[in-house]
Amino acid sequence: MFARQAFRSVQPLKNSVRHYATEPSKGGSSIPIYAGVAAAAALGGYYYISKQPSANDAPKPSQEQKVVPKDAGARQSLTFKGGDQGWISLKLDNVEEINHNTKRFRFELADKDDVSGLNIASALLTKYKGPEMEKAVIRPYTPVSDEDTQGYIDLVVKKYPNGPMSEHLHSMNPGQRLDFKGPIPKYPWEANKHNHIALLAGGTGITPMFQLTRAIFKNPDDKTKVTLVFGNISEQDILLKKEFEELENTYPNRFRAFYVLDNPPEGWTQGKGYITKELLKTVLPEPKSENIKVFVCGPPGLYKAISGTKKSPADQGELDGYLKELGYSKDQVYKF
């Protein structure tokens, strides 16, 4: 019986306000739960040189993607093969403004028939070294284009003050090049690996969640149920909202999304403030449910409050925070 495991009414969302992100840390500073870079948190600082944030989300839904035909496997080539392949330089084809601080960057692959080589779930590393920089800055991004798309990859990047990679990307013009490496494997997915998954994302942590959700619902053999809880600062920060709403309308018994805003507009009827334990208790599949998985991705404040941080890309660390208090086990949670 799906009931609480899935999508019962969540009217209490309106009153779910617990500003834990503004509470001072032991060091006296405050940690906004949706500020910073999900990618940084997602890979646990993997390959990070600078502590400044960088981010990526998703392109406008109107963008069309050239998807590999089912009979094209023999002629396509994988751009990113992992291992000791090294860095690959890709040319920026075009740039599209998404909102006040976010742009989509389309990079050409070597051949129009090539595909990226990414699988579910994985990401790419980017590298840039300015003329006055002692060390190169390296940041991971999850492309928002489909893994079967031929000829290009799309990144969507938020610009942060003093964020060396995001500032560099936002200064790039078509024709310039950027170094990439990968794929960097995350959580290996296969159809029906879990009966029900929950995706807890803050800000730009939506990117790997989108990659996973897209793979599930494009596969007619995958019957996984999906619950998304997505926190942002304002409504304009909710990229991919149209795609998620379409999924919710198409698969009402398998997909449900809940949105929480720190600064909601007038008339906003969903969550206000931050993702709380009370909200999670209301909308997530119960910890005693059979074969569930909870995924977490966001900035440090979100990890600290919801799941505890992970030690490294290879070490998930101990489970802590709201999920532990609600009775979930370490094996039921994956931190991107």
From TrEMBL:
Alphabetized UniProt keyword annotations: FAD, Flavoprotein, Membrane, Mitochondrion, Mitochondrion outer membrane, NAD, Oxidoreductase, Transmembrane, Transmembrane helix
One GO CC term, this protein: mitochondrial outer membrane
GO molecular function: cytochrome-b5 reductase activity, acting on NADH
Region (Disordered): 54-74
Compartment annotation: Mitochondrion outer membrane
Annotated GO biological process: ergosterol biosynthetic process
Major location (coarse): mitochondrion
InterPro entries, alphabetized: CBR-like, Cbr1-like_FAD-bd_dom, FAD-bd_FR_type, Flavoprot_Pyr_Nucl_cyt_Rdtase, FNR_nucleotide-bd, OxRdtase_FAD/NAD-bd, Riboflavin_synthase-like_b-brl
SUPFAM superfamilies: Ferredoxin reductase-like, C-terminal NADP-linked domain, Riboflavin synthase domain-like
Domain FAD-binding FR-type: 85-190
Residues annotated as binding FAD: R139, P140, Y141, V156, K158, M165, S166, T207
Documented EC number(s): 1.6.2.2
Cofactor(s) this protein requires: FAD
Catalytic reaction equation(s): 2 Fe(III)-[cytochrome b5] + NADH = 2 Fe(II)-[cytochrome b5] + NAD(+) + H(+)
Membrane topology classification: Single-pass membrane protein
This protein's record includes keyword Membrane: yes
Gene3D superfamilies: Nucleotide-binding domain of ferredoxin-NADP reductase (FNR) module, Translation factors
Enzyme's top EC category: oxidoreductase
Family: Belongs to the flavoprotein pyridine nucleotide cytochrome reductase family.
Protein's job: May mediate the reduction of outer membrane cytochrome b5.
UniProt protein name: NADH-cytochrome b5 reductase
